[in-house]
Amino acid sequence: MAQVLEFKLPDxxxxxxxAEIVRWLVSVGDVVAIDQPVVExxxxxxxVEVPCPYAGVVTARFGEEGTELPVGAPLLTVAVGGSxxxxxxxxxxxxxxASGTSGTSASEDETSGNVLVxxxxxxxxxxxxxxxxxxxSGTAHSPVSGGGGAPGAGRAGAxxxxxxAHASASGDRPGGGHSFPEPVWDSAVESPAPDVLAxxxxxxxxxAPAAAPAPAAPDRAGPVAVISPLVRRLARxxxxxxxxxxxxxxxxxxxxxxxxxxxxxxxxxAAPQQPAPTPPPASAPAPAPVAAGAERIPLRGVRGAVxxxxxxxxxxxxxxxxxxxxxxTELMAARRAMNAAGGPKISLLALFARICTAALAxxxxxxxxxxxxxxxxxxxxxxxxxxxAQTERGLVVPVVRDAHSRTAESxxxxxxxxxxxxxxxxxxxxxxxxxxxxxxxxxxxxxxxxTPIINxxxxxxxxxxxxxxxxxxxxxxxxxxxxxxxxLTFDHRVCDGGTAGGFLRYVADCVENPAVLLRxx
Length: 521
Known about the structure:
By secondary structure, the protein is α+β, with helices and mostly antiparallel strands. Helices cover 23% and strands 21% of the residues. Strands 11, 14, 17, 18, 19, 20 and 21 form a seven-stranded mixed beta sheet that branches. It has a four-stranded antiparallel beta sheet with strand order 1-8-6-3, with no helix packed on it. A four-stranded antiparallel beta sheet has the order 5-4-2-7, with no helix packed on it.
């Protein structure tokens, strides 16, 4: 008989705990294949398509377009063909339950759609769950009529990351009088997530098989229901005991909002009692009401992620800015000569990137990050160069990997590829994380200078203003030259002003006399 399997929103990696449904790619009644994208979701990092690990007919969808769902919430249910496992075939039923399709072989399970599009399919099948044929207690999710609506209450369980299967009930749909298998989780699933250096870096490793199955639903004395390293780190930084919290997420999952609420409660309890404020005179005017027709825009998705990251940078990083004007006439002439020689055109941003990586080789203090927990400055061996790109969805910072080892031509090609991908809204979290230094070309907006906010957890950002003709003293005479303003915002914890000034002066020297770069080639 057919089985109705529930597919939940998978772990999107990078410490992300929720996603917004942007567009459904299938409707109720559609036939889907393994690995077929079924929904497009927007996270705080990027827009991604989520593939379904099952092949069958879509019987229900959970959530309207625009709905924000936490990781582990149901996305849809799929009716798949198959038969009930024969008694004694526990090993076979465990394998089929993990793959999500009755009768699927182990080799087929290993190559099924257990990861997100663009994240690679070679991830180890870690944290796999096993199914045993016992009756399910609790309330199942109620599908929304017509494929929309918010998800209902879920049965006890645990989150399954990409690379693991997302099996659910076997038999008919919940409420139909049939019994459903109760999940039995490997103990590794409920072990605390590893700490990470930065919120944007999240890595998983293969998990060794557990010696014994853990209970289906952990009680409050068991492991804490937290999947995000970011949430754990936030709790640790503010002294919040996660064991005392009850999560508001599905199946008791502790979300960032739960920890932030606990932090506010602790701050309120620790704050000294203040004397009651003196009431204003009777003649004092009342506060002006909010203007009628004011528009409220939710801070979520890319806009919310940008707001959160910039606020954190301002809170944690004691930044300072220095700037200098430079004569870019020779650099512009060198670029024209390169492009006139034939071959791919070299972009101006690529030349600034090449100068930037050469300066970081001389001043490695700025290619670093600060580990607050260890109270250490961590100097990084490779330059992964981020660059600010404005898109219709907001400001994003794609990252060029190993920029220090690339030529100007290679940098030009990678800048073009990432910019086009950003405009299509198709950047993956891997494209947006792991940067060590940022290059900000705000001259494209027609401005000369800026004091940008550092892209946390990096230590510095180089800003480039517009290049415009200005009066300039050249070789003892007044002339009209192409002038650019350069600015460097840096974390004062990693270096002093002398290092920052030396870095910026070297960049300006290379701009004014590109031959200086020949020493580093």
